[in-house]
Design goal:
This protein is of the alpha+beta class. The chain contains 3 helices and 6 strands, in the order ααββββαββ. α1 packs antiparallel against α2.
Length: 146
């Protein structure tokens, strides 16, 4: 399985997310500047709400930038046990432990991207091919690792 192609899709999705957050922050800042007025407290409340929205977007942007830096460190070399950068096939599906950008389609297969911090990744961590693990009282078997 070509992990470099999967990694490129994830990098692209993260770059797109970063661009969207940056655009939203810029638009929200512009609308915050438009609300400056001498009309009183009503406008101050609106400006504070916009500032909170900017802070929330900035937090999400920082989280996505952090995910992007994690992705830069991932190698596409084949791995023998589950760790960050591993593509894992279980009897329940394909999982790529990297940045959690959701489900992607690669080579006509659905792959769920998950964070190393996710419960599923933690349950699989350190396991090798043909080992089993439990998550939510469901036993899964690792069929292959790339």
């Amino acid at each position: 399985m070509d992990k470099s192609g999967i990694l490129e899709i994830i990098k692209s999705k993260l770059a797109e997310k970063i661009q969207n957050f940056e655009n939203l922050i810029a638009e929200t800042r512009a609308s915050n500047n438009d609300t400056k007025s001498s009309m009183g407290d009503k406008y101050e409340t609106g400006r504070e709400m916009l500032q909170q929205e900017i802070n929330n977007l900035q937090r999400q942007l920082n989280e996505t930038l952090n995910q992007q830096s994690i992705i830069q460190k991932i190698t596409v070399e084949p791995l023998s046990k589950v760790q960050n950068g591993t593509l894992v096939k279980t009897n329940k599906g394909l999982f790529y432990i990297s940045a959690p950008v959701g489900e992607i389609i690669f080579d006509h297969q659905k792959i769920m991207t998950i964070s190393v911090e996710s419960p599923l990744a933690k349950a699989m961590f350190g396991k090798k091919k043909e080992e089993t693990f439990m998550i939510n009282n469901i036993q899964q078997t690792i069929e292959n690792i790339w």
